[in-house]
Write a structure and sequence with these properties.
Length: 272
């Protein structure tokens, strides 16, 4: 019985210990919670970008293995997706780098990290022993990351950002200056919350604020030289008549001798 259990463990994918114990321990419950509440990851799409291509590469390079029994029916892809979402959600610089073409290649970069190990690897004539499960993610047309392929160990592709958890004390971070000089060698990794589909749909849409009615544009009138200012209370429609009355009151051009306010009130009474 003990031998059978030990042999079964050899055929499992085991999550690498460079990820902290508490993070690894919380993953199964987090993924089940995602499934139960139909949560949507902010940065990662739940399906591979080219599903058939991904499945072919995986079946060529790995045996049909399961995760540790505490994961139940959770797949390696579901774990890879949530870890990728945590990496990007914890590192704005990483998110920005993945959404812009790399200066060195002119293409959108991909992201890769080592996730699982297996003691029952396949041997590939071209790529050698596949004892690590290292998923590759790239930006899809919807602006989210999607699984592209999986290889054993992080590749030396000049367009790949090599992601290592910052708490991996025994593993040296891979340099990423080939993508951007400001990218770190190790990246923070924390649990990033995801909203549920129901929550997203139930979120009330705030109606747009009503646009206040615009004031009608007031015509501007140039007052004759010497005419007192028009009081603000005078409706604009009456201003031309006031100007005419004022000009008529001037006779042969001699300015009126009354005070400005007296004249304004007299004109106001005459036109209203």
């Amino acid at each position: 019985m003990v031998y059978e259990q030990a042999f079964a463990l050899l055929k499992e994918f085991t999550m690498l210990r460079r990820f902290p114990e508490e993070y690894r321990r919380n993953l199964p419950a987090r993924i089940r919670d995602h499934q139960r509440q139909r949560k949507v990851m902010e940065h990662v799409h739940h399906k591979p970008t080219r599903e058939r291509h991904y499945n072919e590469n995986k079946s060529t390079r790995y045996h049909d293995q399961l995760l540790h029994e505490r994961f139940g029916n959770i797949t390696p892809e579901q774990v890879a997706n949530i870890v990728a979402n945590d990496f990007v959600g914890s590192n704005p610089a990483l998110q920005e780098a993945l959404s812009k073409p790399s200066p060195s290649t002119g293409k959108l970069p991909t992201m890769q990290f080592d996730l699982f190990a297996t003691d029952n690897p396949k041997m590939d004539s071209k790529y050698g022993l596949h004892d690590l499960f290292s998923p590759v993610f790239g930006m899809n047309k919807q602006g989210k990351l999607g699984l592209l392929t999986v290889t054993s160990g992080i590749s030396n592709n000049p367009n790949t950002i090599r992601v290592t958890p910052d708490m991996a004390f025994s593993i040296e971070g891979r340099r990423n200056r080939h993508i951007h000089p400001d990218l770190p060698e190790k990246f923070e990794l924390r649990e990033v919350a995801s909203p549920s589909i129901a929550t997203e749909r139930a979120r009330p849409m705030m109606p747009p604020a009503p646009t206040p009615p615009s004031e009608p544009e007031q015509p501007e009138y140039e007052l004759p030289e010497g005419m007192p200012p028009i009081p603000p209370a005078i409706p604009p429609a009456h201003v031309p008549a006031m100007i005419e009355r004022w000009l008529a009151s001037q006779g042969d051009g001699v300015q009126a001798k009354s005070q400005p306010m007296d004249l304004a009130w007299r004109l106001l009474k005459g036109c209203c």
